[in-house]
Amino acid sequence: MRKTKRVLAFVLATLMLAVCFAGCGSNTTTSEAGDNANKDSKVYNIGISQLIQHEALDAATQGFQDALKKLLGEDKVKFDLQNAQGDSTNCATIANQFVSSNVDLIMCNGTGALQAAFSATQEIPILGTSITEYGVALDISDWDNASVNVSGTSDLAPLDKQAEMLNELFPDAKKVGILYCSAEPNSKFQATTITDYLKEYGYEVTEYTFADSNDVSSVVTSACEASDVLYVPTDNTAASNSGIINNVAEPAGVPIIAGEEGICSGCGVATLSISYYDLGYKTGEMAYDVLVNGKDIKTMKIEYAPATTKKYDADRAKALGVKIPDDYEAIVSE
Fold it and tell me: What is the pLDDT of residue 300?
């Protein structure tokens, strides 16, 4: 009898222990399932600050949105797209709004937008696109060793190749004018860099700068009077005023080599082009790595356009009598 009771007690103890373990196991599984459910139901809020509206920046923004919609699913991401209309005060207001809203990530399309966001937060991840040189834009001299909440993509096409293109098309020119907005530090960086390359070809180089849209026409007039050919780097103010630039330069018979395709379409003869859509798309992929894969933005390297293409504006080249080599691709107007 005692033996039977001991056996029954052992069996009951074993059963109770099994139930306990099952309960613990069930709680762990439920917790993990809850975590996974929360993760799966996460909707990411992205603030997009675009400096100004023009073809190149619009394409970069579209590429960024398309990448995240594809990678996350359209119902898993919300975009708050704001356009600063080229105004630095608007850039600051937009950045502060995003910080107050505690967005998951800020995408800055253009240098002014990036500067404002970086001033507004050192916590929220910031990705830039259409930025030429990040160290110059943020006044960080040792960018490679900087540990900041900023990374992104650069729209810098090889400046040595752009100088080579200018020389290929205008080998007999003597004076090159570089035209850009003095308020954009990345434009100054490009102008300084390409000047050295152009001087190696024997050109006399002069910079012509406008402070904003109001003095574009008068500065372009001065540049055309003193130059055989103009170079316009990737510059947001120039891009948004390319029609004004063309209205002065083309009647004056002065051709322009442009830093990107949008400016070339507006006033240029030829450009060494990158795809701003692809650049924005790459930025979207970087955002996915930060938001979902847990990559530390402070260690992410700046990405560059994977390829460049020689392009030209056929109508303008014909009007100015510029002979274009066969390896150039005509810009298709949309």
Answer: 97
Using CA atoms, how far apart are residues 290 and 296, in angstroms rounded to an integer? 7
pLDDT at 248 over 90: yes
Longest dimension (CA), the chain: 118
Alpha-carbon gap, residue 199 to 283, rounded angstroms: 35
Let me know: does 262 contact 235? Beta carbons within 8 Å: no
pTM: 0.75
- pLDDT higher than 60, residue 182: yes
**Secondary structure of residue 47 in the 3-state scheme:** strand
Question: Residues 78, 46: contact at Cβ < 8 Å?
Answer: yes
- Among residues 90, 75, 98, the alpha carbon closest in space to that of 149 is found at 98
Q: In the structure encoding, which two tokens stand for residue 93, read together?
A: 């207001």
Q: How far apart are CA 216 and CA 117, in angstroms?
A: 28
Contact 153, 286 (CB under 8 A): yes
Nearest to 242 by CA among 225, 262, 259, 222: 262
d(CA 30, CA 19): 16
User: For residues 297 and 146, is the Cβ–Cβ distance under 8 A?
Assistant: no
**Cα–Cα distance measured from residue 108 to residue 38, given in angstroms and rounded to the nearest whole number:** 28
pLDDT for residue 24: 44
* Cβ atoms of residues 50 and 113 within 8 Å: yes
Q: At what angle do helices 55-72 and 276-291 cross, to 10 degrees?
A: 40
Q: Band of the pLDDT at 41, cuts 50, 70, 90?
A: confident
pLDDT at position 162, please? 96
Q: Which residue segments constitute the domains of the chain, with CATH numbers given?
A: 44-155+275-301 (3.40.50.2300), 159-273+309-330 (3.40.50.2300)
Q: Quote the CA–CA distance of 322 and 324 in Å, as a whole number.
A: 6
